[in-house]
Every structure is written in C-alpha cells, then in structure tokens.
C-alpha cells in the first residue's frame, strides 16, 4: 500500500478509465488537468478515433478539451482491453440501464468485471462509478474479479465505489468541483482511492463502505424523482383550477428556508432519475420491503408524456383539427436544455405516442441534428432535425416544446406558429394577441 501511495504522490500512478462517455471523458480530462497519467478504454472505435484526432463527440464538452486530450503526452486511448494491466487504477464508467421489465440490467457491469478479472494484476485499485443498488460491488463485482483473476480482494487488489455526480451542461460545477462520495472494501482500499481522487477533485466525502456509497447516489436521485413527480402532479391539479403552476413555484421559491424549487416538465430524462429509483425498488424486495412512495413517483413521471398528448389533442381541437393526420413538430430531443444528451429523453415517448395516433411527426434540435444509432430507439435512427426556417416551421399544425434550449428564438416560434403546446414554460415572455395560440402542458 505504501508503494502505491508513493506512486500517487509522485504522479506516476496511471488511472485507467473504462467507458469514455458523459462520465468517463470529463473524468479523464480532470485527471489530465492535474498531471495524472490516464489510459482510456472504449469499445466504440469511433470514439477512440475522435479522441486521437481531437474531434468532439459530446458537444457541450467543447473543442478545447478534445484538442488538449489528443495532444497530451500523458493520455492514451485504446479498444484493446488486454492493456488493463498497464493501469494502476481502473474506474468503471459504464451503463447501468433497466431491462424491459424495469429491473436492473447489470450486463455491462458483469461483462466489464469479467474482462478486468481476465487481465488484472496484483496491486490494482478497481472502482465502480456507475449508479447501482446497494451491495452490487460486494455481491457482484468482487466475486467476479476474484474468480477470474485468482487473486484475493484486500490482499492482492483493492475495490471501491464512488458514484458519478455529473450534471451535463452545468457551467457552475465541473467534475473537479463536485464533492466525491467514496466507499471502499477496506481501510487500505479507502486510503488509496481517497489519495487518488484528491489529486484532481477538491473534496472527497468518505463513507463507511461501498454499499453506503451506493445508497447515497440512489438517495440523491430518488429525492429528485419524488419532488419532480410532486410538481408534475401539482401542474395537472392547478391547471384544472386555472392556476399557473410556474407562477406558484416562482413565488414559493422566494422562501429562504424550508422549500426547494423543482420544475415540472413532459417527463423524466437523463441516465439517472428515470432509472435509479427502480434499482432500489428491485433490491428492496429481497428484504421484504415495499417502495410505494418511489413507485408512485415513477408512475406520475412516466405518465407525463401521455398528459402532453392529451393537451396536444385539446389544442388541436380548438383549431378544429384532429391529431390523426396533423403535422406535429416536437422541439427538443435532448433530455435537458443546451446539451446533446438524449439518454432516456421523454421526447422519444412523445414522438412514439404521436406517431401511434396517426400524426405526421418531425423534430427540431440544433444540438442533435441527426438521431444516432441507439439500442432503445432504433426506429428513429438517422432521422434528421428540420431546419429553423419560417417556411418550414409555419407549415406544422402544432408545435410541442419538449426541451427549452436557450438558442431557440421563441419570439420567432410564436410569430410563425398558431398552435404551441409548451411543456417547459418557454413561451412565458412571449406576448400574443392571438386566441387559442399557446397551451401550457
């Protein structure tokens, strides 16, 4: 252990990062900025090619990061996982989705652990950064590593869990500034992992063990899911009373204590909030525990796209049009403003529902000009965004604002379109003399 700590102090400790996406790439950049040698592992050859050429593939991270990483003498990238033994630490930044039954899909965790176990060596630190249910590290990862490698945890290698807390597009907090929760399999593992992260991250929050750290991340996202469900339900209730929920929330948000403002929308998106609560729901069954509050929140949030469709039908009715056969434009494919991240975006559900009801559907999103290949939305692959032109936008019978990107000219949108369904309060400042023009959803 002392020799490992010495290597970290001397910045001779090489950090391997498995998965160079929305979590792994900023993490690699953070270590690189602090002079820590890194080795990135990625199954996608295109990402490795982009990294070597300095070509961005995650828009909001910018060109400068990619250019500097491609030129860095202490960075390397590979699709060859047999090089795992070259790294002193291996940070797993891999997907943890739900399957079709809304149960945890740990296939990426299992496959990556098996690969690490095949090529690992003594003295390495293995860290999972992906969100998962408590005891995944202890019950899934460590047994696989020991079986595959023939080595013993905390004797021959070390294991820790430190959940990512990325917020894509948030300019106030980058990876180095977000406090890092850390749990480990032993005191020695915790000491090594903490020393490693302290080289590049301002504040480390050590907790008792891996399962506690796993529970921390779930708790954070369940808190957000439940509160978003609450304001989504309030939106529906207040709309029936002809009360503007956004005005209510803005006023309530002026209270300096005891209230935290959340914003309603067309559903949940991103890799965390729509998925993570169900990881705890699934694990809780093993202990004969029910998660009624969590499941109710999930039910409300997953039902919001249906509410948007109902409001779209109502809006079209005021113009004496049916949804079937109407041309509908959905604005915003990304799950949140000003990023190109479409993971779990509720827009896809809205597109699917509109199409199923006979609408002719298109989308606009300058951040995602073409829908890339994905496991979940294959039917939309290579669909292209329409152009932001009056002669194009004005021909749609209705426009649904699903994501309120800041680069959209909402004044032009209001002038061009006679029927707008606004799920994000994006048109709040637009003044209109038209009737049956803007509908809040």
Topology:
Elements: H1 2-9, E1 15-18, H2 24-33, E2 38-41, H3 45-53, H4 63-71, E3 75-78, E4 89-92, H5 107-119, E5 125-128, H6 136-149, E6 158-161, E7 180-184, H7 187-198, E8 204-206, H8 210-240, H9 245-252, H10 276-285, H11 292-318, E9 327-331, H12 346-356, E10 360-364, H13 390-393, E11 398-401, H14 410-416, E12 420-422, E13 438-440
Parallel strand pairs: 1-2, 1-4, 2-3, 4-5, 5-6, 7-8, 9-10, 9-11, 11-12, 12-13
Antiparallel strand pairs: 6-7
Helix pairs in contact: 3-4, 5-6, 8-10, 8-11, 11-12
Detailed description of the structure:
- The chain is an alpha/beta fold and 441 residues long.
- It folds into 2 domains: 2-208, Rossmann fold, CATH 3.40.50.720; 228-440, NAD(P)-binding Rossmann-like Domain (Rossmann fold).
- It has 14 helices and 13 strands.
- The strands form 2 sheets. Strands 3-2-1-4-5-6-7-8 form an 8-stranded mixed β-sheet, with helices on both faces.
- Helix 8 packs parallel to helix 11 (292-318) and helix 11 crosses helix 12 (346-356).
Overview features:
single chain, 441 residues, alpha/beta, Rossmann fold, 2 domains, eight-stranded mixed sheet, 12% strand
